[in-house]
Amino acid sequence: MRSLFQTFFGRPYLLLSLTSLFWAGNIVLGRYAAGHVPPAALSFIRWTGAFLILIAFAWPFLKRDWPKIRQHLPVMLVLTFAGITIYNVMAYWGLQYTQAINALLITSAHPLLVAAWSFVLYRERLTIWQTIGIVLSLLGVLTILTQGDLSALRDVRFNIGDVVFFSAQIVYSFYATLIKSRPDISPISFLAFTIGAGAVFLTPIYAAEVALGITFTLDLKAILILAYITIFPSLLAYLFFNRGVELIGPNRAAPFYHLIPIFGSALAIVFLGERPELFHGVGYALVLAGIFIGTRGRTTP
């Protein structure tokens, strides 16, 4: 069993693909939860619940790695504040006002934002293979979102929710790039510290939301949403994503973000009965080709 576990966590492409699948569900449910569960409450319950689930398993790792965590506390706190606190509140707030297609279009910019942050923070440039991969996968995403008619992009209208959601992607791309500077500790320790500290940072934001009278009813719909978001796009996706970036670096991991709209459309076909069309196949092929090509190139400083 231990050997199987180690083999699984040594496969970055599988880990990053599962991450995109779980995050596709997060965007769909985050949009679905708009008006039902407020953004600060959704973020606070998501990460508090994830921490309470994880801490029983993570405690021995945290005790062992605490000296390194304390030694690198500034970068750990910056990663927490960016990737857990600020990103989640902004993303869920933006999803209350944006349309699903707009959100998927905006997430498509993630690999480009990671490339920009990689240059700013580490002076790393994309290789020609990575550039071709990002362009191909982005074209595949746009093919699916516009149903094969790229001229439809002219009819897309952006609002304040889109601006906030895009700003959230800038923050998360910073987190995804800065992971490279995290201390050499167990992935379990890293995840437990960041989500635990993130829940603490979210507490005053959630308290302010409640003080303003913004509450929600804990019905079956809210429970199901919170259960999925706490386990899959939080605990599992962040663990898989952090490990994937650790293994292949932020620039080579970035094209996998384009799988999010791919999985989103596939879920719509499976669960909502939508009919697969030719543009789906073309888009999938372009994204997969882009990921295959993009992961060939190594980042050059």
Task: Describe the protein's architecture and organization.
The protein is mainly α and 301 residues long. It has one domain. The protein is built from 13 helices and no strands. The chain is globular.
Percent helix? over 70%
DSSP summary, beta strand count: 0
Distance between the termini: 39 Å
Mean pLDDT: 86
Order of helices and strands: HHHHHHHHHHHHH
Characterize the main sheet: none
Give the percentage of residues in beta strands. under 5%
- Count of individual helical segments: 13
Unreliable parts: none
Radius of gyration, rounded? 19 Å
Overall tally of domains: 1
Content-based structural category: mainly alpha
**What would the principal axes of the Cα set say about the shape?**
globular
